Amino acid sequence: MILKNFEDLTVYLNSPRNIVIIGHRNPDGDAVGSTLGLKHYLDKKGHTANVVMPNEYPDFLHWLPGSDTVKRFDHQNNQSVKALEKSDIVFLLDFNALHRVGDDMKNTLEKYKNDFALIDHHQQPDDFKYMYSDTAMSSTCEMVYNFIEMNNDVDLIDENIATCIYTGIMTDTGSFRFRSTTSKTHQIIATLIDKGAKNDRIHNNVYDANSYGRLQLLGQALTNLKIVEDCHTAFITLTQEEKNKFNFEKGDTEGVVNYALSVKGINLAAIFIEDVEQGIIKISFRSKGKFSVNQFARKYFSGGGHDNAAGGKSLDNMQDTIVKFTTLVNNYKQELATSYEA
Ligand code: 5GP
Ligand code: MN
């Protein structure tokens, strides 16, 4: 755990400030939940906080309180840059290095003269003036809760704050099932329910919001599922053509990789998703036990993440990417066989 200059940060936040809060590119439930949760809290403390996201996030997160105030750097560039220019400090949530916001936004942030405050649970964070980094945490949302608690402000948590934080903890823990879910996580969730988070509504809004096309695309993904013999590995592919056929929308493939991991005996799962516009194959990796997909993604697929959930990309075509992947995992047979003991 790294806690750097957070006492100074508390002092700095004793006066009203203009604040921008940023999440990573392709924001997920934890990125949107943590940035909005922190925004509601800081606004309540008398600051003026604005959330700026690099790009769009899935429909099933748009119901979150405050979502209508989020500025998108790619679409509302002027407003985003203005908010940044006006701000005294920038919070970076749920990512560990500036490149995770994408090149455009990174270039703007690098010119930025004011201070950064990082709150994040990814490995190997870059250095910023203020840092709260803890890879043992289930989610950045859990850390936002801890940040509020550090400031003795749990009393200030209202339904909006509770709803946002609950959502990110829920999505980043696979609904409280991953190993990162601790008794403290559950205690925080209990407090958030007491503060007004409506657990049934949140689960419904996030998980029972499938479009027909999304389920059809899932059907295609499951049809494409393949097992790599003797490697405890399963993977899924989705081509651009398949995505188009089922009216792919952002977020439609979220969580699909977990079906590959749910095959009995599988310790490593991957999904390869062709993105013709970006000219890449976007990859998600998941593992069970000791096999670190963070290291695997960093080493071979220009990516990173956590030990058991990471992502990366390939510039090769789908076929070559799959050949590369299956060749690689064959070199890790032993590690993959012993990664997880149920
Ligand atoms: P997902 O597979 O859900 O997109 O991402 C899983 C985890 O890996 C997330 O914590 C995400 O931040 C991280 N991740 C995904 N793609 C990349 C990438 O290209 N680079 C790095 N460094 N991390 C990634
Ligand atoms: Mn997260």
How would you explain this protein's 3D organization?
InterPro entries: DDH_dom (IPR001667), DHH_sf (IPR038763), DHHA1_dom (IPR003156), Oligoribo/pAp-PDE_c-di-AMP_PDE (IPR051319). It comes from Tenacibaculum todarodis. This is DHH family phosphoesterase. GO terms for molecular function: nucleic acid binding. The protein has 342 residues and is α/β, with parallel strands linked by helices. It has two domains: 206 residues, Alpha-Beta Complex (inorganic pyrophosphatase (n-terminal core)); 125 residues, Roll (Diaminopimelate Epimerase, Chain A, domain 1). 40% of the residues lie in helices and 19% in strands. The strands form two sheets. It has a seven-stranded mixed sheet with strand order 1-7-6-5-2-3-4, sandwiched between helices. Helix 2 links the parallel strand 2 and strand 3. The chain is globular and about 60 Å long. The protein starts with a strand and ends in a 5-residue tail after the last helix. The model has no long low-confidence stretch (mean pLDDT 97). It binds guanosine-5'-monophosphate (5GP) and manganese (II) ion. Guanosine-5'-monophosphate (5GP) binds next to strand 12 and strand 13.
The proportion of residues forming helix, as a percent range, comes to 40-55%
CATH architecture of the largest domain: Alpha-Beta Complex
Distance between the termini: 28 Å
Number of helices: 14
Tell me about the biggest sheet? Answer: 7 strands, mixed
Report the β-strand fraction as a percent range. Answer: 15-25%
Task: Please state how the strands of the largest beta sheet are arranged side by side.
Answer: 1-7-6-5-2-3-4
Radius of gyration, in Å, reads 20 Å
How many DSSP-defined strands? 13
In the residues, how many domains can be counted?
Answer: 2
- Ions and ligands: guanosine-5'-monophosphate, manganese (II) ion
Q: Would you tell me the overall average pLDDT?
A: 97
Low-confidence stretches: none
CATH C-level label of the largest domain: Alpha Beta
Structural class: alpha/beta
Secondary-structure element order, N to C:
EHEHEEHEHEEHHHHHEEHHEEHEEHH
CATH fold-level name of the largest domain: inorganic pyrophosphatase (n-terminal core)
Shape: globular
Oligomer: single chain
CATH level-4 homologous superfamily of the largest domain:
inorganic pyrophosphatase (n-terminal core)
